[in-house]
């Protein structure tokens, strides 16, 4: 029986490209800054275009999920419930208005109907997860799904770098910034990354509000299935979000010592650095080249509306 070495790609003809990537990865871990990890990963990917095996990308996604679950262990479930209750109305209004605005703008700009639906839902709820969930319901073409995910991916990378700087410039509180990024950024990974840069409290608020926002994918997907007369509607609610809640319950009931909570936060931060580096490595030249003009302008236009509106809403909070 043939044994496959998972690291055999290092000895391939283009294996020299992996050496600077691994060095950059080690440097990102040593510095320990989420935004830097993302930038370094994207720079290495665009400059060298290393062809990483698929399990490297899956490992990065697993690290992100584990980082969020570890964070849940450090949160009190009563605080989690209070935050969810305080902002659920704001989240519901945001999702509804963003969906409507995206569909209207998409029609005015004559964007492909599939791409308009996918981008509107991705911006309103949870980026790539919403796009992948809605795609079979609206019977979107694979090319449209790839284009929409690529656009959202690039906007997420920009948000991680830009929003923490804006939050500090505007002297936002931790709660204000947490709410802002939980609404303004598409994917959970990027919400967590941006909030982690700003502070621990912002990270707690952002993760909790984003959880509420992601759960709204259930009624939206079901409604889309009814309107489009799709009898089989498959939901893709991330299981790690449920584990996040379970970890919060466990941490609240067990009441672990302060040292253990501190270690859990450190592990969460370390895993987040690894995940963001891997996310940066996913930004490739082919991803940028495949973007469709009208779809790009729809996503940018909608996001340029979402960012200031959610910023105003967050700043209005006490």
List keywords for this structure.
79% helix, 318 residues
Assess the beta-strand content as a share of residues: under 5%
Uncertain runs are none
Q: Give the overall form.
A: globular
Number of domains: 1
**Amount of helix:** over 70%
Largest sheet: none
| Mean pLDDT metric | 80
Give me the Rg, rounded. Answer: 20 Å
What's the β-strand tally?
0
| H/E topology pattern | HHHHHHHHHHHHHH
Whole-Å distance between the termini?
65 Å
Tell me the structural class. Answer: mainly alpha
Number of helices: 14
Would you mind describing this structure in some detail?
- The protein is mostly helical and 318 residues long.
- The chain has helices at residues 18-31, 34-48, 54-73, 77-108, 113-138, 142-169, 174-184, 188-198, 200-215, 217-227, 239-254, 258-281, 285-289, 293-315.
- It has one domain.
- The model has no long low-confidence stretch (mean pLDDT 80).
